[in-house]
Design brief:
This protein is mainly beta. The protein is about 0% helix and about 45% strand. The radius of gyration is 55 Å and the shape is rod-shaped.
């Protein structure tokens, strides 16, 4: 029993290093007692042959008031101690000094569980001489399982006058810091240092290390967990409970105000989802046996932006563009295309759904989308009754594939265009579909003088009396009266005003002066274009009306 104050001290941890009847030694770094493994740590400059810690009876523990001695000189001594001796062998509490022998090394206890205890005192017996402020042992303490260490002072040199060669075993006590109270991760240590050129034995020996306490501490449970400071509405975070050395038997997670969703409200690990933007206090309550403990953290749930996407038009023709604009945030990203900002210009070739991600000042994201429908351009076909005409004659050009047309250079809006170019001319048609999309096509008609006299094709192409058609308006039949020249390989075609062919008939030959009757009773009433082709040469188109 040791007394530090007027309160009684109760021993709860003891290390006497055991016995060794055969005087064998072991390095302290390899020594394990019933308390656990002792270790050593280099804490400063150690030269080539530093002095080191041993556990053996070479410097036997003789008890307070006795001179140091060991089993080397007295084989009956078997009580082992922790002591500093030479690097070349265990000589008891003796050390080598001078160049090459400087040492700085700490012997460290196993972890000591001080849970439920306060007013903790470290007690031990020792001998030490050395050289003041140069060769000495320092008492050390760790509250965090050896991660960091603090100095508890240097015990006085023990008397040597009555002890030839060695010191007198002496008792020493030192109170541990309050951080040891109720602490399950305490360690004590003994740090030896020697830098003097000659030194003075004995070095240091330690035995009968005892920790005592003056008061029991009621066991308590303080659970812990980490929680980020902020999160975005709609997001989740994982939290993990810890109860230190206490084994928890239950957990409860809660929130004030209510609203967050716990994926596992009674487990040590849970996800918390926050669907409302506000400040919350998250509390963990844990139980361990009869102990109950709680801890809380606050978290700010920031709002997410309400992001919308708009377009200058939701329907475009292929090849055209739309301007997309975002609202509700300060920064925007668009996909596909990985575009940033607002507005952005897009030119999709197929119908495309654009997604927008908007970020507000809190770094929270909102989402939106908009669909752009792409209408294909019409495929405009263009053909001519002939690609070459005699000057003064005509060709019929027909456009297909659209609903309406616009020609240049003739400024016509019909699907069929009758032209009489005097020079080689390129005709361009712009076709517009029912959806309003446009496309173009061109055709070039070449011209020639076609000079020559007499009979033949040239003579009747330029002859306004080659044939005539009557009656006009039509009723049930159309009569073609041949002029003064025979006509071979005649093709008769009727078109409506938008270029749709309604009638076609081929006639092998028509003799001069004869009439050919053609039934048109099946045709609807309206305006028609008659196109006659003789021997592959287009004649002037005629406008007919059917009543």
């Amino acid at each position: 029993m040791f007394v530090l104050t007027n309160k009684a001290q109760t021993a709860f941890w003891t290390e006497n290093f055991g016995t060794n009847p055969v005087c064998a030694n072991v390095l302290a770094s390899a020594y394990t007692s019933t308390n656990g493994a002792w270790t050593t740590s280099l804490t400063g400059t150690n030269q080539t042959f530093p002095n080191i810690w041993y556990v053996s009876a070479t410097e036997a523990g003789m008890g307070v008031g006795n001179c140091g001695d060991g089993c080397t000189s007295n084989p009956t001594l078997i009580n082992r101690t922790l002591h500093i001796s030479t690097n070349v062998g265990d000589l008891g509490a003796a050390y080598l000094a001078g160049i090459g022998f400087n040492s700085d090394i700490r012997a460290q206890s196993p972890t000591i569980n001080c849970s439920g205890k306060s007013g903790i005192v470290l007690n031990f017996n020792y001998i030490m001489w050395g050289v003041v402020n140069q060769d000495y042992c320092q008492i050390m303490y760790s509250a965090d399982n050896g991660v960091t260490w603090s100095n508890l002072g240097i015990p006085p040199q023990t008397p040597t006058v009555s002890c030839t060669g060695q010191g007198l075993w002496t008792a020493h006590t030192v109170a541990l810091p309050i951080s040891a109270n109720n602490n399950a991760t305490v360690k004590v240590g003994f740090r030896w240092q020697n830098i003097n050129a000659t030194g003075a034995d004995p070095s240091v020996a330690v035995d009968d290390v005892v920790l005592t306490y003056s008061a029991a501490v009621a066991p308590s449970l303080t659970p812990t967990f980490s929680l980020q400071a902020t999160i975005c509405r709609g997001d989740s975070t994982q939290v993990t409970a810890s109860t230190g050395t206490n084994v928890a038997s239950g957990y409860t997670w809660s929130a004030v105000p209510a609203g967050p969703i716990f994926s596992a409200p009674n487990a040590s690990v849970t996800y918390i989802k926050f669907n409302t933007a506000t400040n919350y206090t998250i509390t963990l309550t844990a139980t361990s046996g009869t102990m109950i403990g709680s801890t809380s953290h606050t978290i700010t749930v920031n709002p997410t932006p309400t992001v919308s996407a708009f377009s200058s038009t939701n329907v475009i023709c292929n090849g055209n563009s739309a301007v997309l604009t975002g609202s509700g945030a300060i920064n925007y990203t668009w996909t596909p295309g990985n575009m940033t900002g607002s507005p952005v210009t897009v030119s999709p070739t197929v119908t495309t759904l654009y997604q927008i991600v908007g970020t507000n000042s809190f770094g929270c994201k909102g989402y939106g989308s908009i669909n752009i429908t792409v209408i294909p351009k019409p495929t405009i076909g263009i053909s001519s009754s002939t690609m070459n005409v005699c000057i003064g004659s005509s060709a019929t050009i027909t456009a297909t594939g659209a609903s309406t047309y616009s020609w240049a250079p003739n400024s016509s809006s019909l699907a069929i265009l009758v032209v009489s170019p005097s020079v080689n001319t390129t005709y361009t048609v712009v076709g517009t579909s029912s959806a309003g999309c446009t496309n173009t096509n061109t055709i070039t008609i070449t011209t020639s003088s076609c000079s020559g006299g007499g009979t033949g094709l040239n003579s009747y192409i330029n002859n306004e009396l080659l044939y005539s058609v009557f009656p006009n308006p039509l009723k049930d039949k159309m009569i073609i009266k041949v002029g003064d020249a025979n006509m071979s390989n005649v093709k008769v075609e009727l078109f409506d005003v938008v270029g749709k062919k309604l009638f076609e008939q081929n006639l092998n030959s028509l003799a001069a002066g004869t009439e050919q009757s053609i039934q048109v009773s099946s045709l609807p009433k309206g305006v028609f274009i008659l196109q006659m082709n003789v021997d592959g040469k287009a004649q002037k188109a005629m406008r007919l009306v059917k009543e």
